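Give me structure tokens for this 245-residue protein.
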Amino acid sequence: MRDYDIEIAAMAKQLRIGNHILSVYKEIPATEPAEFVYRLLEGLIEKRAVERGLRYRQKAGFESIKLLKDFEFDNIVMAQGFSVEWLKTCQFVRDKQNLILIGNPGTGKTHLATALGVKECDAGGSVLFYRTSKLVQYLVELHETNQMKRFWKQLEGCRMLILDEWGFIPIHQTGTRLLFEVIADCYEKRSIVVTTNLPPAEWNRILGDERLAVAIMDRLFHHGLLIRHAGDSYRQSHSLMRECS
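Here you go.
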């Protein structure tokens, strides 16, 4: 016969409802009170996990919700020793590794980054999603109004920072410096996922300050994994204009 006491005590602790339940449930006049209580607590834990995941999704700032099951992994190339199944587990978040998703427009970089972020939210991890240009603009505004503490507090509890469309717009010196401070703060504390169609050799051009650009790349690449997105643009291949031509 299964002994539920240890599992019920662990779930009660997780739900923060105390251990008195161990003595109370045994007084319930039912055929299998232990199993009933176990199933009840199990359901409560699952419901809380779902609700927490939904809250994290809302706070992340995703532009749209994308899921890993809807992503086509056939056209991505990773370094030897890393697999798609490994990527899907989000183990890189636990290991505080970075991902650099690079490829032409429309090859699924934002979809994959978002889907990984959603997966982490559902697993109970806090995620922040920004288009890089909007983040830099936001940081400059906070800096100019002496409100940077607001962002640092937001970043403190984050496990994954997603910087979408890196290098899309050139960044002036103040923006580059603030971006460096963010990446330096994340270094070996949380994962950064970057999506870009710009080769790293050209990052100097958009970051403006060569010294800061080198420092940024050094921190991103040290614990970073490059994932190349090949193939044709999904948007162009599914365009109504193409179908009508």
